[in-house]
Structure formats: structure tokens, C-alpha cells
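User: Fold this; C-alpha cells only.

Assistant: Input:
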Amino acid sequence: MPIVSKYSNERVEKIIKDLLDVLVNESATPDLALMCLGNTLTEIITNNVPKKEREAIVDNFTKALKQSIQNSK
């Protein structure tokens, strides 16, 4: 069953493009890009997710990331 998002594909794709543009403009290597994105995720979760919900959010995100990587093989 496909996941239904409350965000439009256009908005999601624009934000992804903007993030990737910054990484390209900075000539970020894959390890630097992942470090920056990981630190950004930590900042978002720490500042915007209640403490009692953080572990579940991280678990769900990790699961979705793994599925996304597996599906792209």
C-alpha cells in the first residue's frame, strides 16, 4: 500500500533539490553530506519532537531509510 503524504510531491521535490544544490555547491563528499544531513536530523528531532516520542520517530525513520535503500537496488 502506498504511503499517502500530507505534503505535495512538488513541495517535497523542491526541498530535496534545494538541499542537494547546497551540497553540490559546497562540493560535499558523500561522507560530509551524510554527516551534515545527520546532524540536521538530530537538530530537527531534538528541537521539534517531544522527548518521549524521539525513539519511535528515529526507529520509524531508520526503517523507512533501510526500505528505501533496499528498494533502490
